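Researcher: I'm preparing a figure for a lab meeting and need a structural model of a single chain. I don't have an experimental structure, so a prediction will have to do for now. The sequence is pasted below. Please return the structure as C-alpha cells so I can convert it later.
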Amino acid sequence: MNTFLKILLGLVLLVLAFKFAPVLMLPFGLLAAGLLLAWVTVSLTVAGLFAVALVVVAALAPVWLPVLAIVGLIALCRGGPRRTAA
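Model: Understood. Here is the structure written out cell by cell.
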C-alpha cells in the first residue's frame, strides 16, 4: 500500500471519527456520571462511618478514660526490666 492510500485511509477514518463522535460521547458521559455518583456515595459513606465512630468514642469516654488511666498507672508503677537495644 503506497503512502497516498495510507493518508487517504487516515483521512477517511478521521472523518468517520468526527461523524460518530456525538454517538460515542453518550456512553462515555454516562460512564463518567456513574463514576462520579459512585465516588460521592463512597465518600459520604466513609464520612458517615467516621462520624458514627467519633460519636461512639465520645459516648464511651466515661468508661475507657478511667480504664486507660489505671492501665497507665499500673504500667508506670510496674516498670519492667530494662532492655538494651539489639
